[in-house]
Amino acid sequence: MIAGIVGKANVGKSTFFSAATMKMAKIAPYPFTTIEPNVGVAYVRVPCVCKELGVEDNPRNSKCIDGVRYVPVELIDVAGLVPDAWKGRGLGNKFLDELRRADALIHVVDAAGATDEEGRPVPPGTRDPVEDVKFLDRELAMWFYQILESGWDRLIKRVKMLREKELAVLQERFSGLSLSRHHVAEALRKAGLDQKSIDKWSDEDKVEFSWKLVEIGKPTVIAANKMDLPQAEENVKRLREEFKDRVVIPCSAEVELALRRAAEQGLIEYLPGASSFKILKKEQLTEKQLKALKRIEELLAKWGSTGVQDVIDAAYLKVLNLIPVFPVEDATKLTDHEGNVLPDVYLVPRGTTARELAYKIHTDLGESFLYAINVKTGERVGEDYVLKEGDIIKIVATKAIRTKAR
């Protein structure tokens, strides 16, 4: 699954993307072989089962550091948003086209209120960041409404004259936006339209359905950026009060980027998401750099982290509701056929079954699935077994598949 980083200009969106996608540690082979300029690889932190089992692992598709797996995920840096993007204003068409692939959104908001609705700099505290969140919601809802309205007559004809199912027709209409039938069905239910014939929908019904479809199909984490500015603290509280149903995380992309660059140069020891860092080469730092690191220490002490890694974790583990599972080929040794201990971790949607995991590993494995073994319990489970967070699973199939690192 993919998260898209969105926001207006000058809120720190590009800085957030740069900080999130820097190489934290060498992980090979990379899961994405072709990376476009606006696409990068970040990492989600999940607990590794190695400590629980008391084994030393050697992962292939991720990195384990002190019992924490850093799992590669894909981020898209979406073009900057301007008012009426849905009408094609500014880079509106580019913004919306890039957003089609995103399963969840990371909305980078200027929590210091230092940019107006067009992204122009203003004195901190001038702009209300709550309005920026509502602004994005409105743009997306009107985009969805436009898609629905532009093909409305054909949609009605297919349902009324050709007797096609409403749900299937609606899902097909939005299929290019990474939206599933479940998303559409849930939006119909939440909009109160699941029992209303589609040819009886009013314009208000169409708009309400579009709002609900955005809410369900493009769920959002709010990255309240620029928390290092004093005006941000009160605005973070306001964002959390206004959007109680969303994850709001204060962050400083600028500070995170500075820490990652210093760590890459070997000046400090720092892990993304950590609450502290260690200076390694004090003699190579200028007085100005030391003062800057001192300010960063104070910021981390106050907020707990820069927030950037927390935002990424929240997008995949909370908003997309993914859980880690660890497939192995040898249930006794916890290895693949090459002897790698706990070689892979897969982030799968909560509710994924054993057979669905088999398909994710390899199509032939899914098609020839016989049963699975829950390695922790030693229990044999069937195809409908619902995976739990941290499960170690061996798939037994009629075809032996030699998987490669993803």
What this model shows, in words?
The chain is an alpha/beta fold and 406 residues long. The protein folds into 3 domains: 2-124 and 220-317, 3-Layer(aba) Sandwich (Rossmann fold); 140-216, Helicase, Ruva Protein, domain 3, CATH 1.10.8.470; 324-397, Ubiquitin-like (UB roll) (Roll). It has helices at 13-21, 50-53, 92-99, 129-150, 152-160, 166-173, 181-190, 203-217, 232-242, 253-264, 287-303, 308-319, 354-361, 363-367; strands at 2-6, 39-47, 63-65, 68-77, 104-110, 220-225, 247-250, 268-269, 278-279, 322-328, 346-349, 369-374, 379-381, 392-397. The strands form 3 sheets. Strands 1, 2, 3, 4, 5, 6 and 7 form a 7-stranded mixed beta sheet that branches. Strand 8 (268-269) and strand 9 (278-279) form a beta hairpin. It starts with a strand and ends in a 9-residue tail after the last strand. 41% of the residues are buried.
Reconstruct the topology from this structure.
Elements: E1 2-6, H1 13-21, E2 39-47, H2 50-53, E3 63-65, E4 68-77, H3 92-99, E5 104-110, H4 129-150, H5 152-160, H6 166-173, H7 181-190, H8 203-217, E6 220-225, H9 232-242, E7 247-250, H10 253-264, E8 268-269, E9 278-279, H11 287-303, H12 308-319, E10 322-328, E11 346-349, H13 354-361, H14 363-367, E12 369-374, E13 379-381, E14 392-397
Parallel strand pairs: 1-4, 1-5, 5-6, 6-7, 10-14
Antiparallel strand pairs: 2-4, 3-4, 8-9, 10-11, 12-13, 12-14
Helix pairs in contact: 1-10, 4-8, 6-7, 7-8
Task: Tell me roughly what share of residues is in helical segments.
Answer: 25-40%
Termini separation comes to 14 Å
Number of domains: 3
Poorly predicted spans = 23-37
CATH topology of the largest domain: Rossmann fold
